[in-house]
Amino acid sequence: MVGALGKNFATFASRLRGGHGCDTAAAAAVWAVSKRFMSSSGESITVREALNSAIDEEMSADSKVFVMGEEVGEYQGAYKVTKGLLQKFGPDRVLDTPITEAGFAGLGVGAAMYGLKPIVEFMTFNFAMQAIDHLINSAAKTNYMSGGTINVPIVFRGPNGAAAGVAAQHSQCFAAWYGQVPGLKVLVPYDAEDARGLMKAAIRDPDPVVFLENELLYGESFPVSKGVLDPSFTLPIGKAKIMREGNDLTLVAFSKMVGYALKAADELAKEGISVEVINLRSIRPLDRETINASVRKTSRLLTLEEGWPQHGVGAEICASVVEESFYYLDAPVERICGADVPMPYAANLERLAVPQIDDIIRAARRACFRKEDMRQATA
Amino acid sequence: MAAISSLRVVRPQIDLTSATSSSPYAGSVGEKAFFRIHSRKQLLGAAAADAVEKACPAAANGIARAAVSSSRIAKGAPKSCAKSNKPELLVTRDEGLELYEDMVLGRSFEDMCAQMYYRGKMFGFVHLYNGQEAVSTGFIKLLKKGDYVTSTYRDHVHALSKGVPARQVMAELFGKTTGCCRGQGGSMHMFSAEHGLLGGFAFIGEGIPVAVGAAFSSKYKREVLKEEGDMPVSIAFFGDGTANNGQFFECLNMAQLWKLPVIFVVENNLWAIGMSHFRSTSDPEIWKKGPAFGMASAHVDGMDVLKVREVAREAVERARRGDGPTLIECETYRFRGHSLADPDELREPAEKAHYAARDPIVALKKYLLENEIATEAELKTIEKKIDEVVEDAVEFADASPLPERSQLLENVFADPKGFGIGPDGRYRCEDPGFTAGTAQV
């Protein structure tokens, strides 16, 4: 089994053997089995594995890093992202908390102010609303209020946005809310590479980071290069990635919507519309340079998000592009967003409430001045 | 007060291998010890319990009666949870049958939910109530239609007990437009204005302030608006995990401060998803949090509907009289996992078996039969009737239509002008295309 694995396994295994806590050999075996190695030329990992490995490596490298949240330890994580960490690092570094979001978020901020590096998990970011006072008032604003003398190197992570059939109180997208706050860094990974690189960057970052994952992406597998699996791999915060180059239209998306954007781009390519897909990776700081450079090339902009339209992420991107690249635009900017309603439970209504690939395709055609009735805005 | 400050949590060792494991009062060393309190008197000893009662003078009557009823049971060497040796019956025939029917409805309905989920008719998060029926039935069957109930995501059975028709609940779970919330709420968000069910909340602790608010409005209507009639009472159901949440404590304070007609019912099933109550709570005895706020508290065996009903009756009467809130901790257990997606790997099989032997429906059936309140045939008839009700609910839900596209934008506001003015200068909601199914707002 060991021989069949890629040479990166040796690196992982040695780190695992050197790690704290019990049962490193078993942990190594679990890690090996859980990785899905295909051929030696390309490897594929799920977003869940990417996050797990990133947190694992950072905890091994720096003993000030600890994980805190509901069900992160014995339950192996409500979505299994922290699987194996309790067994490896012990209960002092992987804390199962009571159901007190405000309390443990504040506790994490205090710990960060005093030199530790907490990773606070919210079972979903909806529950973070019970702790939002601490995310904003004590984490985001402290470096400013203290005149730069006290920083808060904390990571708040958890799934964000709609899942499947979980109704209004479990489906809200908070990217726009946190993206508005100066003092927070807001990251939105899409694939496994993003997850690994951004998580490592977030943990090493000296500022509070809100790390918005997506439940439906956890199980999705993405091919990654060997460089991504290296323990020193990080991605810069505040830099978007051009997932697919194109000439006719810039489509800006983040998180799960990047996948939809790519599929829509494939469809549109058949019609002769060449779409450039930008994966934001970071809501704050927002990579305006990349977006504007792309729009200046294509001269059309579409933004795509799952959240509500008013004051959403798309609104900011459109404003930024209109401000900086107005004379390059050949078509009105358009935002594709979730419906302006709380998420309905009924399956057919839920499908109507989030953007679908058809919506993207129709909007793209509109932007390219194809004949498309405005009333056909949604499927 | 010394008695209270010196109280420490005791972990009784339970003999799980003994034949009378259905009795909550067996007491020798078992393989796995876990924590159960049976009655305050048993735990604290009579003297300490009396001291606690003296410490809460405002609630003395309430606690005394609750403790007495529990301890009466403790002293009466029972063979089972039911008090088969007592000469005095706790329920009339009609009441007994009503309780039985309600619990069987709750159980059958939840079992059907599990089936439907695995067949794909239900989706998302579904949290089942199997095993806890005594709490819902014991409390809600004492309420009137005008009283209020709030619950958590584990709310199907609270809805059914409160009178929401099984058809409507099942249709809601299927996401059909005939559901009690038109398919827009789902499993975790059952609301019924007609039956006084104020939710159905996904966040634990969220229902507690809402119940307190309903109680506030009851009191306000009586005292400010001078409305006549019985003061409506409200009950907040929540779990052991919620008892660590800030909202719970804030509401205990306000409810007692303003003497609101609310009852806080803790369904302590010892687990919050995979987090054991003892791992997350510094003092696991939740009922003790009431006296800290000057509130009447009781602890009751939540697997016995008759005991629950006795304590509940006292609490409801207190609230209606205007004597204020009560905190009641019910020791209960959920037979299934946290939700249908929970692998339920962390709970010990011995613990599950112990509580399975204390099935509240079985216990009530035994009581009814042994005291000749009902015959086997009558109970069987009830069970058959419930089977038909649940089957009918499924058929109704299956046959019901999905919501129309236009329903997507409805019910955001009570006054839909909140969607603003459209580009043509008129209110968007007045545009005939608004509900034709376009979400281009």
TrEMBL record, chain A:
<keyword id="KW-0560">Oxidoreductase</keyword>
<dbReference type="Pfam" id="PF02780">
    <property type="entry name" value="Transketolase_C"/>
</dbReference>
<keyword id="KW-0670">Pyruvate</keyword>
<keyword id="KW-0496">Mitochondrion</keyword>
<comment type="subunit">
    <text>Tetramer of 2 alpha and 2 beta subunits.</text>
</comment>
<comment type="function">
    <text>The pyruvate dehydrogenase complex catalyzes the overall conversion of pyruvate to acetyl-CoA and CO2.</text>
</comment>
<dbReference type="GO" id="GO:0005759">
    <property type="term" value="C:mitochondrial matrix"/>
</dbReference>
<dbReference type="GO" id="GO:0046872">
    <property type="term" value="F:metal ion binding"/>
</dbReference>
<comment type="function">
    <text>The pyruvate dehydrogenase complex catalyzes the overall conversion of pyruvate to acetyl-CoA and CO(2). It contains multiple copies of three enzymatic components: pyruvate dehydrogenase (E1), dihydrolipoamide acetyltransferase (E2) and lipoamide dehydrogenase (E3).</text>
</comment>
<dbReference type="InterPro" id="IPR029061">
    <property type="entry name" value="THDP-binding"/>
</dbReference>
<keyword id="KW-0809">Transit peptide</keyword>
<dbReference type="InterPro" id="IPR027110">
    <property type="entry name" value="PDHB_mito-type"/>
</dbReference>
<dbReference type="GO" id="GO:0006086">
    <property type="term" value="P:pyruvate decarboxylation to acetyl-CoA"/>
</dbReference>
<keyword id="KW-0479">Metal-binding</keyword>
<dbReference type="GO" id="GO:0004739">
    <property type="term" value="F:pyruvate dehydrogenase (acetyl-transferring) activity"/>
</dbReference>
<protein>
    <recommendedName>
        <fullName>Pyruvate dehydrogenase E1 component subunit beta</fullName>
        <ecNumber>1.2.4.1</ecNumber>
    </recommendedName>
</protein>
<keyword id="KW-0630">Potassium</keyword>
<feature type="domain" description="Transketolase-like pyrimidine-binding">
    <location>
        <begin position="45"/>
        <end position="220"/>
    </location>
</feature>
<dbReference type="InterPro" id="IPR005475">
    <property type="entry name" value="Transketolase-like_Pyr-bd"/>
</dbReference>
<dbReference type="GO" id="GO:0045254">
    <property type="term" value="C:pyruvate dehydrogenase complex"/>
</dbReference>
<keyword id="KW-0786">Thiamine pyrophosphate</keyword>
<dbReference type="InterPro" id="IPR033248">
    <property type="entry name" value="Transketolase_C"/>
</dbReference>
From TrEMBL, chain B:
<dbReference type="GO" id="GO:0006086">
    <property type="term" value="P:pyruvate decarboxylation to acetyl-CoA"/>
</dbReference>
<comment type="subunit">
    <text>Tetramer of 2 alpha and 2 beta subunits.</text>
</comment>
<keyword id="KW-0560">Oxidoreductase</keyword>
<dbReference type="InterPro" id="IPR029061">
    <property type="entry name" value="THDP-binding"/>
</dbReference>
<protein>
    <recommendedName>
        <fullName>Pyruvate dehydrogenase E1 component subunit alpha</fullName>
        <ecNumber>1.2.4.1</ecNumber>
    </recommendedName>
</protein>
<keyword id="KW-0670">Pyruvate</keyword>
<dbReference type="Pfam" id="PF00676">
    <property type="entry name" value="E1_dh"/>
</dbReference>
<dbReference type="InterPro" id="IPR001017">
    <property type="entry name" value="DH_E1"/>
</dbReference>
<comment type="function">
    <text>The pyruvate dehydrogenase complex catalyzes the overall conversion of pyruvate to acetyl-CoA and CO(2). It contains multiple copies of three enzymatic components: pyruvate dehydrogenase (E1), dihydrolipoamide acetyltransferase (E2) and lipoamide dehydrogenase (E3).</text>
</comment>
<dbReference type="InterPro" id="IPR017597">
    <property type="entry name" value="Pyrv_DH_E1_asu_subgrp-y"/>
</dbReference>
<feature type="domain" description="Dehydrogenase E1 component">
    <location>
        <begin position="102"/>
        <end position="404"/>
    </location>
</feature>
<dbReference type="GO" id="GO:0004739">
    <property type="term" value="F:pyruvate dehydrogenase (acetyl-transferring) activity"/>
</dbReference>
<dbReference type="InterPro" id="IPR050642">
    <property type="entry name" value="PDH_E1_Alpha_Subunit"/>
</dbReference>
<keyword id="KW-0786">Thiamine pyrophosphate</keyword>
